[in-house]
Specification:
alpha/beta, 7-stranded mixed β-sheet, 27 strands, 29% helix, iron-sulfur, iron, Mopterin_OxRdtase_4Fe-4S_dom
Length: 707
């Protein structure tokens, strides 16, 4: 007889509320919870039993017995594995200093309690090594989210993107720019957008391909990949030229308007059409619609980060919303103050020594305080700025995520210690000295916060598989062996006590609730910049140096960057080196998400592989016909860096002369087709945004031929 249990999905940290079916303690199936505030379920969550009980799960600690990269290990006890790691860290620290130890965190470190107790300003980088004395905590923030989430909004508004929320329900127009909400984890915003559209809200999607949201939208603005910044500046040009901007807001709450006005004169609709492929008529009508349909809200995400002016592109979009008076008004892009949390958290200061990457990307370091992982190979292979000898990877697959992975493999072979904490054997794990098995969130006790003040305890649904442990407790044991155990929770019970230390009564209420509790909310407040709630000094205005929206950023100029949202056309593109463009005439965009996987995860799960069993390159019918390529053909994608096989999907969803290539392949446990198709063998380690250091994943060049 099976039993039903109300729970939180444990496949990703999104926190979707579900109903789990179990028999004798084994998870049989899951479905979205009914009548729950955040009841939802994606295809990955539906495959939870296959993922939890996959034969590929790492079930015991492993210690390397072969050469790095061979993947030969022996089983070990937890004490032996953790003692080995701690002793080696101490040994390296004594010989080279604590800065010789580095860490890298990824998707596996996104869980709520991990973020609260172990993660830094970028919400991912571990602070464990910072407490040990090393500045070299890094994360997936070295190539994802930080441009959109921190660098662009903070240099413009003084506010991170987590504090800029779209108000779909009260808007007249929803603009989705460089995002595809159906693939979000969790998909809460997607549901809100769909509901808003049913209630009559108009949607405009701006994207380089006809994604799901572009297909649903009332209007698709098809822009050449990597040129969104030019489009945003072209829209600003029209708004200023036609004087349809919010004059009161501009005069009272912005700095740098005259400089911006002068700069955007060159971005006429005619010129922007040549750059972006968007017609001048559509540019003018779009600008007028955004400026006059007030209120207009915005949903953008990480899609604009991956070009040579990624940070500035995003700034230009944010500036457009400020100029048109759609900032912090009902139905616009609202400003949300961070919630006051009841947790007891230890503040761990930055070490005095700077991490690798700080000198090259000083603003990145100033805002985040983390090392930049694009500079990790140089630290290992060239001892620049000093020797780095050890790396702890927590829940991340770097060799399928970073450009030109052979460079990282070379660095990993030179390390004195590489430790991987994960649920599955990634490509990184093949080079590890020690692999430590982590649980899925179905096997943990924790808690989850949701938008709007809703909070719920995460209760263990199934017992840990094998000897797998909660990441929090793995790091807690390691911290204890390094003399830092007092800084971190040592049990799930202590975790909850610390998380609600300032409100223990709330914890008791949550324990008594099978579902969750919605905390009392504050009345909606708008135009908060006119009050004193945004600035830490209690003054009126925005939390920027000027107290205003900085169209010309003083923070960027402080570090030697252009203060205006300067556009840079992709260095490797149609307007770049013409000899390269002749040999590689297709614009290459990588990383478009698909439903069955999240990056490199789950490409070994049979049920999910039924959705898409092979990595694809999406190619326009005209480009396919010119190359004799038909639907389903195996093809070779070539760039200046390398060549990789994919399978052709011939579709009008991509623009002529452009292709979209799936990312995520390259892990040894994946099926053969995915395992042999690591798209980052095509991308460029050296071609980056100069402010963020992010690789140019969506504006490179390639050629395709039938295999």
């Amino acid at each position: 007889m099976s039993e039903l249990k109300k729970a939180i999905c444990g496949i990703c940290p999104g926190g979707c509320e579900i109903q789990a079916e179990l028999q004798d303690g084994v998870l049989l199936s899951v479905k979205a919870a009914e009548d729950a505030p955040f009841g939802s379920l994606c295809v990955r969550g539906k495959a939870a039993p296959e993922i939890i009980y996959s034969p590929d799960r790492v079930k015991k600690p492993l210690i390397r017995t072969g050469k790095r990269g061979e993947g030969r290990f022996r089983e070990a006890s937890w004490d032996e594995a953790l003692d080995f790691v701690a002793d080696k860290i101490k040994e390296i620290s004594e010989a080279f200093g604590p800065q010789a130890i580095a860490s890298h965190s990824g998707r596996g470190a996104f869980e709520q309690s991990m973020g609260d107790f172990y993660n830094g300003t970028d919400m991912v980088s571990l602070n464990l090594l910072r407490a040990f004395g090393s500045p070299n905590s890094s994360s997936v923030g070295s190539l994802c989210y930080v441009s959109y989430g921190l660098l662009a909004p903070i240099t413009t508004f003084g506010i991170p993107a987590t504090g800029l929320l779209p108000d779909f329900e009260n808007s007249n127009l929803i603009v989705v720019w460089g995002a595809n909400p159906v693939t979000d984890s969790p998909p809460f915003m997607f549901k809100r957008i769909v509901k808003a559209q049913k209630n009559g809200k108009k949607i405009i999607a701006i994207d380089s391909m006809k994604s799901d949201i572009a297909n649903r939208a009332d209007q698709w603005v098809a822009v050449r990949s990597g040129t969104d910044g030019a489009l945003a500046l072209g829209l600003i040009n029209v708004v200023i030229t036609e004087e349809i901007y919010d004059r009161d807001f501009v005069e009272n709450w912005t700095v740098g308007f005259d400089d911006l006005k002068e700069y955007v004169k060159q971005f006429t609709p005619e010129e922007v059409e040549k750059i972006t492929g968007v017609s001048k008529e559509q540019i003018v009508s779009l600008a007028r619609e955004i400026a006059t349909s007030k209120p207009v809200t915005l949903r953008t995400y990480t899609g604009l980060e991956y070009s040579n002016s990624g940070v500035q592109n995003i700034r230009a979009v944010f500036i457009l919303w400020a100029l048109t008076g759609n900032l912090d008004i009902p139905g616009g892009l609202t400003i949300a103050l961070p919630p006051k949390l009841p947790m007891e958290k230890v503040d761990i200061p930055r070490p005095l020594m700077q991490p690798f990457g700080a000198e090259k990307y000083p603003l990145f370091y100033d805002i985040i305080g983390s090392a930049h992982f694009l500079e990790f190979p140089k630290a290992v292979l060239q001892a620049d700025p000093y020797p780095v000898k050890a790396l702890l990877i927590n829940g991340s697959s770097t060799l399928t995520s970073y450009p030109e992975p052979d460079i990282y493999e070379e660095a990993y072979k030179k390390l004195d210690l590489l430790v991987v904490i994960d649920r599955f054997k990634t490509k990184d794990a093949l080079f590890a000295d020690v692999i430590l098995p982590a649980t899925t969130y179905f096997e943990n006790n924790s808690y989850q916060r949701y938008p709007g003040g809703y909070i719920r305890l995460r209760r263990r649904v199934v017992e840990p598989v094998g000897e797998a442990r909660n990441d929090i407790l793995i790091l807690g044991e390691l911290a204890k062996r390094l003399g830092l155990g007092h800084l971190y929770p040592q049990s799930e019970e202590e975790l909850l006590e610390k998380a609600f230390a300032k409100n223990p009564e709330l914890l008791e209420r949550l324990k008594a609730s099978e579902e969750g509790i919605r905390l009392p909310g504050q009345p909606a407040e708008y135009q908060k910049y006119a009050g004193r709630s945004l600035r830490s000094d209690g003054e009126v205005g925005f939390p920027t140096p000027s107290g205003k929206v900085e169209l010309r950023s003083s923070l960027l100029e402080k570090y030697g960057y252009e203060g205006l949202p300067i556009y840079t056309d992709p260095i490797e593109g149609p307007k770049g080196d013409q000899s390269v463009y002749q040999e590689y005439p297709l614009i290459l965009s990588t990383g478009t998400r698909i439903q069955s996987t999240f990056r490199s995860q789950h490409l070994n799960i049979p049920g999910l592989l039924k959705i898409q069993d092979k990595p694809q390159v999406l190619i326009n019918p005209k480009d396919a016909e010119n190359r004799g390529i038909k639907q389903g053909d195996k093809v070779l994608v070539r760039t200046q860096r390398g060549e990789v096989h994919f399978w052709a999907k011939v579709t009008e969803k991509v623009l002529p002369n452009s292709v979209e290539v799936n990312q995520g392949g390259g892990t040894p446990i994946q099926v053969e087709e995915w395992r042999n198709s690591n798209v980052n063998q095509l991308t460029d380690f050296n071609n980056r945004d100069s402010i963020s250091g992010f690789p140019i994943f969506k504006a490179l060049l390639c050629q395709i031929e039938k295999s």
